[in-house]
Design goal:
498 residues; alpha+beta; ibrinogen binding protein from staphylococcus aureus fold; five-stranded antiparallel β-sheet; 19 strands; 38% helix
């Protein structure tokens, strides 16, 4: 379970004296919902961690620097840009909700980090000196508050009494511990144990899923092998039927479903019924039974060995499925099952370089706006068509330079999401830069162009239009002047080509 209101308040009170003295040296992105600061204070480094992970939403000071993820989140990049080398100042938390605010002193004025550490609708925001939102860790999920970039931050409404009473508990009795790091240490140990248990449970579930799929396949295989074994045992019967059918040559017409013949191998020479393949004549039915005899008569030992191997694998997997194993046992037994071919090994995924070589080139360049929005820029006529007509989703924002040939530009937006001002200006700048209305990067600075923009759902491709030419409705016009700093940031931003 995530932190409760009194736990967050007591941890904040314990850490606040130290956190108010620190300088931000690093911002570490741990996963898409978790990040950490490396804060330098006199004599030591602190690692205050914020997480919105489901069931593990928390704010704690880690004992050592956590491992960072390979690709940092856009919010961590924003924190790095705004807060690196800033000095932390006041730190406060709410007594009525899982909410805290941390103030940083930067060269551009104060910055406020506001964390709403609830499970379902939690989020973390960075605010400017006017308390306008610069960015957030997660997309806005609130239907009551407009929490988007460039808008003023709105605090959450007070909790209903029932929810407040449920969250206003401290099962660990942290208040009884001295505020010397003991509270933080106890909660860190608790959450580390929960996360480790959750990780182990995930391992068990993955192995269990693989085992159940293999058991299902083995049962089908056992059934098929048993059927082959029965056929092999009946192989002598196929030879007998082939020989008896030879005694009725000239008496049976093609298309008969069965025939009655005298069983010369029986002491009383009784008449027996032999099934025929109606698609074959009598001679072909004779050859069919002799072929089945040859196929199965010498395979009984081999089939029995296959059946035994299948049953052994099935029995082993059914035993493992019911056992509760530790992590080392899980890894060991998984490797053992793969070596013995009781379990199919997981195919390694392709490296990113291999994927790049094997995958077709994308029809667009990718950039990131200041607020972290993806901006896609078409590479030419046919690529523009692919971007606007196949890649685009209805709610994406589409832009193009008016009266000039140029790239189609898309800004990725969620359903009913409005674009923020900085992302619009960034996208318009790229639409102007990648048009015939500008020259080189150096010579285009200061150029002003009109940019048309509308939702991607308003784009049409009339029959007969050449590649890259489209029609659109409900468009607006923006006059954009290409600024050197904005263009340089966009071209250097991660996700953009050099």
């Amino acid at each position: 379970m995530s932190m409760t209101i009194p736990q967050l308040q007591l941890i904040s009170e314990e850490l606040s004296p130290k956190l108010s003295l620190g300088v931000v040296r690093k911002v570490i992105s741990i996963d898409p919902k978790t990040f950490c600061f490396e804060l330098r204070i006199p004599g030591e480094n602190l690692f205050p961690l914020f997480s919105l992970s489901t069931s593990f939403a928390r704010f704690l000071n880690e004992a050592q620097r956590p491992k960072k993820e390979k690709v940092p989140s856009s919010f961590s990049l924003l924190l790095k840009k705004e807060l690196l080398n800033s000095r932390s100042e006041s730190f406060k938390s709410s007594k009525k909700d899982r909410w805290l605010e941390w103030t940083f002193n930067t060269l551009d004025g104060p910055r406020y980090l506001v964390a709403e550490l609830s499970d379902r609708h939690g989020n973390i925001f960075l605010l400017d000196k006017k308390r306008n939102i610069l960015g957030s860790l997660l997309p806005n999920k609130s239907t009551r508050r407009e929490l988007v970039v460039s808008k003023r931050y709105q605090p959450p409404a007070p909790l209903p009494e029932e929810i407040f009473n449920r969250l206003n508990q401290d099962n660990f009795k942290l208040e009884q511990l001295p505020p010397d790091g003991s509270r933080n240490e106890k909660l860190c140990q608790h959450f580390n144990n929960l996360i480790e248990e959750n990780r182990l449970q995930t391992l068990r579930q993955k192995l269990g899923k693989r085992i159940r799929a293999e058991i299902k396949q083995l049962k089908r295989r056992e059934k098929a092998i048993t059927k082959d074994l029965n056929k092999a045992i009946e192989a002598q019967q196929y030879r007998k039927w082939g020989e008896l059918l030879q005694s009725v040559y000239g008496q049976i017409k093609k298309g008969e479903p069965e025939v009655q013949v005298v069983d010369y191998y029986h002491p009383q020479q009784e008449r027996i019924t032999i099934q025929l393949d109606q698609r074959l004549d009598l001679s072909e039915n004779v050859q069919r039974y002799f072929k089945l005899y040859r196929k199965f008569s010498g395979a009984i030992d081999q089939i029995e060995n296959r059946l035994q191997d299948c049953q052994n694998a099935l029995e082993t997997l059914q035993i493992v499925e019911t056992e509760s194993l530790s992590e080392s046992e899980l890894l060991s037994i998984t490797e053992d099952l793969e070596i013995k071919n009781f379990l199919k090994p997981i195919r390694p995924t392709q490296s990113s370089k291999t994927k790049q070589r094997s995958s077709p080139a994308l029809p667009y360049r990718e950039f990131l706006s200041l607020s972290g929005k993806k901006i896609l820029v078409g590479k030419g006529g046919k690529h523009n068509d692919a971007l606007s007509l196949r890649v685009a989703k209805g709610n994406d924002l589409w832009l193009h330079a008016l009266d000039w040939p140029g790239a189609h530009v898309l800004v990725r937006l969620e359903k009913k999401e409005a674009i923020d001002e900085e992302s619009l200006l960034d996208a318009a700048t790229l639409a102007a830069f990648y048009s015939k209305g500008t020259k080189s990067q150096k010579e285009c600075i200061g150029t002003t162009l009109d940019i048309g923009y509308t939702r991607a759902k308003n784009i049409r491709k009339p029959k007969g239009f050449p590649p890259g030419r489209v029609s659109y409705v409900e468009a607006k016009t923006l006059s954009i002047r290409i600024e050197e700093d904005r263009l340089a940031r966009l071209l250097d931003r991660k996700g953009a080509p050099s």
